Amino acid sequence: MNDLIPVHEDDDGDDAHAAPRPRRKGVYILPNLFTLAALFGGFYAIVMAMNGKYELSCYGVFCAMVLDSLDGRVARMTNTQSAFGAEMDSLSDMVSFGAAPALIVYEWALKGLGKAGWGIAFFYCACAALRLARFNTNLAVVDKRYFQGLPSPAAAALVIGFIWVAVDTGGYADANGANVLSWAAAVATFYAGVTMVVNVPFYSFKDLSLKRSVPFIVIVLIALAIGIINLYPARIIFAIFCLYGFSGYFVYAYKRAKGRPVSAIALSTDEPDEVGLHR
Fold first, then answer.
1. In this structure, is residue 47 part of a structural domain?
2. Total-model pTM
3. What gap in Å lies between CA 38 and CA 64, rounded to an integer?
4. Is 150 exposed, middle or buried (0-12, 13-18, 19+ CB in 10 A)?
5. SS in 3 state form for the chain?
6. Containing structural domain, residue 262
7. Spatial contact of 203 and 151, defined as CB atoms under 8 Å apart
8. Is the alpha carbon torsion for 256, 204, 104, 167 positive or negative?
9. Considering its fold, how many domains does the chain have in total?
10. How many Cβ atoms sit within 10 Å of the Cβ of residue 176?
11. C-beta of residue 65 within 8 angstroms of C-beta of residue 11
12. Between 3 and 43, where is the model more confident?
């Protein structure tokens, strides 16, 4: 009787050999949690600035910096790197270190400068976007020991650190009425924006391994540094980032004096229209 039962097949007759449905790709939760937390830090900073709480805005951006430095390390340590995570990280950086510092410094000091104020704020934001786009497209040819231009978290630290020092030590809850301070904030913002897009090498610290053993004195010095920073956190942290923010130009001048290559990146061969960007 079984021989009389018709077999239903599709037109090609290969129903039994149909290809299985492809599995949907998931998203690694652990590194993206750090990225989302960094994004929240930038969003929180913007909201606090809208409410005139600039010191809390500074805390939000600096917390985003710490979290941003951890998500990539966590992904590498747990072998959970992904293209999705890389794109998510760039978008988070644009908010936390591009849009947030520009909006915060505009509300705090640049609003009183009129068109010049929002023009400088936009210039910084645009430079952050350009810096992130260039970083993503030059990953394959850049020297891993150096960043090409000031990284956006450090640029944000220059802008936000300036505000933090003024609020913490000078009591300037709003600098729009102080003309000198407003223009000083404008200069700091402009410098941070320009330095993000110049072809100047900044040490990346990526060749430092946390897995290697160190002498005991190193741990003692780290504890001492934490204690010193705790005395005047705003001024000392801002001073550290100022030194880093100028260090690239010293490296550039030193290499130029020694006749060494000064670019952090080799000339791209597949994008000839961008040759001028790398010199």
1. no
2. 0.83
3. 4
4. buried
5. CHHHCCCCCCCCCCHHHCCCCCCCCCCCHHHHHHHHHHHHHHHHHHHHHHCCCHHHHHHHHHHHHHHHHHHHHHHHHCCCCCHHHHHHHHHHHHHHHHHHHHHHHHHHHHHHHCHHHHHHHHHHHHHHHHHHHHHHHCCCCECCCEEECCCHHHHHHHHHHHHHHHHHHHCCCCCCCCHHHHHHHHHHHHHHHHHHHCCCEEECCCCCCCCCCCCHHHHHHHHHHHHHHHHCHHHHHHHHHHHHHHHHHHHHHHHHHHCCCCCCECCCCCCHHHHHHHC
6. 96-278
7. no
8. negative
9. 1
10. 18
11. no
12. 43
User: What's the longest Cα–Cα distance across the chain?
Assistant: 99
Q: What's the pLDDT band for 272 if we cut at 50, 70, 90?
A: very low
CA-based R_g, the chain, Å: 25
51 CB neighbour count, 10 Å cutoff: 10
User: How far apart are alpha carbons 209 and 232 in whole angstroms?
Assistant: 29
Q: Does residue 115 lie in a domain region?
A: yes
pLDDT tens-digit readout, 68-98: 988 888 888 888 888 888 889 999 999 999 9
In a domain? residue 80:
no
Residue 224 forms part of a structural domain: yes
pLDDT above 70 (res 19): no
